[in-house]
Amino acid sequence: MRVLGVDPGLTRCGVGVVEGVPGRSCTLVAYYVVYTDPADDLALRLLHLDRSLGKLVAEHQPESVAVERVFSQHNVRTVMGTAQASGIAVLAGARAGLPVQTYTPSEVKAAVTGSGQADKAQMAAMVTRLLRLAEPPKPADAADALALAICHVWRGGTRSKLAAAADRARRGGTR
Questions:
Q1: 7, 37, 41, 144: which one is catalytic?
Q2: Known catalytic residue: 141?
Q3: Does residue 135 have an active-site annotation?
Q4: Which of 56, 96, 145, 163 is the most buried (most CB within 10 A)?
Q5: pTM for this one?
Q6: Of 26, 22, 45, nearest to 145 (Cα)?
């Protein structure tokens, strides 16, 4: 399974692509950070992010997209930019006809490190180790995007199967 992970941000948006199957090591395909200039008009920043993510989806042909779910922060301005970038990432996957799954930061941390309370350094160290890299991906936005992709490879398949089973049960079928 090839997954494109997105750590949404309006100024810096991390993107990571990995391949793998649940229970096995993943392989790095690529990682990027899409930058926008805070001095630019919001509409132009969102358009740049949309075009960049669309190109990366087309280039890497993932089977699914994993996006970090926006969570409440004290800085409303920061959370608004993150939410807008998140919406663009979800749209990029949907536009390509791909399944899109969101994960909270603690879900990703638990999947990758075993602890939902892991810090940035622990996350970067585990991503480096899991992908057998010589050094941590930089900046941290790229490492976070790779962690999202790894999380989806390992948990997304199970999550999708459970959702499909629940949907069948609601409809009364056993298909």
A1: 7
A2: yes
A3: no
A4: 145
A5: 0.88
A6: 26
